[in-house]
Fold:
Amino acid sequence: MADEAEFTIDELAREAGATVRNIRAYQERGILPPPRRAGRVGMYGASHLARLKIIGSMLARGYTLANVAELVAAWEQGHNVADVIGLEAAVTSPWTDEVPTHMTYEQMLTLLGGVMPEPAVMARAVELDLVRPVEDGFIVPSMKLLNVAATLIREGVPLSALLTLTKELRSRTEEIADGMVAMIIRHVFDAYGKDSLPPPDEAPRLANLIWRLRPLVLQAVDAEAARAMEKAAQKHLGERLAHVLEHLHGAAPATGS
Structure:
């Protein structure tokens, strides 16, 4: 696409969690396509980022570069390269349209109600990757999460309590996500055999399936989260409201007949 994000080799390395040296090595081995030339500068696109993430995932699972090169070569010989790239992008593209936001120290201070967290608490926020300190402020990976936290903080909820809940929420969400993906692999991808590539003509269908599953999965999670919040609110806030009403009823003056 004309407006597709492009990266220099340094930017690509940072986005993919790789090194410039490794990217050049992958190109030399033929497992990463060459960049588009813009004058003397090589520009990389989303397909390069997707391929790098696949390579990184395979290396983390114990494959060697030679294994990866053989697999990529075998795949591309039997598949249309555009189909391969489409399937890679469907698997590795971000599931959110949020982009990291830069905030100055003053902007962060204002958002949090004029009081910055203590250093130990801020360190926990950094550890959870809710904020990333930089020389002139912070990089915020998700403003949605930060805005939720800031609203609750301004209402009196301590950031330390929010961080504890966020860590637990993330752990449970990752466990559920792993289960969902494992289910898809077991019932869809394993039909072609474990550790086997799908037939050439199946790559477009599988890519389309993954793209269609994305909003469905998010809708299912949203519906279950709404159900759980309704149940929790009725349990905890309902009990508190009933207690308050009972207290008011007991304190009401008796009326004469």
About this structure: The domain at 9-92 is CATH 1.10.1660.10 (Multidrug-efflux Transporter Regulator; Chain: A; Domain 2).
